[in-house]
Input
Amino acid sequence: MKNIWPGVATVLFSVLLLLVFVLLGAPGTAFGSALQATSQPMPTAGPDGRILYTVLANDTQWGIAAQFGIVLSDLQNLNSWNGNEILGEGQVILLGLASRQEPTPTAGPTSEAVATLTPEAPGTGSICVLLFDDVNGDATRQATEFGIAGGQANVNERTGLASRTAPTESALDAEGDPVRTCFEELPVGEYTISVAIPDGYNPTTAPNITIQISPGQTQEINFGAQAGSSSNFGLLSPEEGRPSPVMGLLGIVLLLSGAGLGIYTLQLRRR
Output
């Protein structure tokens, strides 16, 4: 009976050793997950080239950078963060930028090339700006108020994906509508649009606005400006008025009445 115990001890030791290897190596166990934790692969980039991530509960700047193998300072620069930025659950942040993938043409059944119209790329939008001559100064464009040339329109995406500048126009299209300054195929994102007004004009609307561009969307923005006194238009301020013709006639009547009364008085004295 004593000779059995060495064999039983050997079997128990082997089983224990096997369990240890299973617990440490199995990826589905808590031990395996803890020991085999590595940086996760980056999420797939969107059509506009941006790699986005939705913040989970208890996520931090350092934790997200470590999770995806990103340098913390790079992550902060991409999202314009400071060191004390607090992330909120559900917040969408930028992990990186990838080059946009252009579609690869496939060979057709024949060698004949077929020309097709390419629609606006998914994931992009447009912004069209009009700087109009706000003649009545009500900050709302009327049908008879047209564009002002010599200004400058600017669009800037918050994370730096796009930044463009173009002059404003005063031309009309074939239908008689003002020609707008348009910025096409802008990556989706949050944009600040602003205008620089030419000399001789004063703004009647806010000089800038921030909007969100969605895929396939075209936003039309109007900025108003009114000719200043330096333009010599002689516009009257709301407090000023013109002489009333009624008051003028009344003055003439009074003068004639006074003259008649004077003549009558002289005739009475002569009698």
Observations:
- The longest strand covers residues 124-133.
